Amino acid sequence: MEIRNKIKASGLKATPQRRLVYQAMQKFGHASIDEVVAFVQSVTPDMHISTIYRIMESFCEVGLLSRIYNSEGKTYFDITPTEHHHFFTETGEIVDFEDRELTALIREKCKNKIGDGQTIKKVSIQIMVAEKTDLPVI
Ligand SMILES: [Zn+2]
Question: How far is the CA of 83 from the centre of ligand 1 (A)?
Fold first, then answer.
């Protein structure tokens, strides 16, 4: 779907600033606010950081983006709207991992571990990947 229509379908006006911010997220897939600001300001140097923050917040509120957190608690924005998991590599790469069977299994195993009147809103596993260091001695 075209950027303009995607933003409109979420209920927001497809302003030029919003289209540019969404374009940044399409480029990155997962991005920190710093990456989005750098991209947007490389195109439109006059767009203030607070405007970009507000747009990112509004995108999260309407479900165009979601937030994910690495093991240090740093926030990244994610453009993939469906329920999925992530591999975080030591080099800072974030890779989507979708497995409906695994997600359904976790939901099933956890449904009785939450309180009455509660429901599992989202299942998102973070898998931290490290380089192997146990190389064989020659
Ligand atoms: Zn993702």
Answer: 8
pTM above 0.90, yes or no: no
Q: How confident is the model at residue 110 (pLDDT cuts 50, 70, 90)?
A: very high
Domains of the chain: 3-77 (1.10.10.10), 83-129 (3.30.1490.190)
Q: How far is the CA of 6 from the centre of ligand 1 (A)?
A: 18
* Ligand 1 centroid to residue 138 C-alpha, Å: 40
Residues with CB under 5 A from ligand 1 (ion): 78, 80, 96
- 71: exposed, middle or buried (C-beta count within 10 Å: 0-12, 13-18, 19+)? exposed
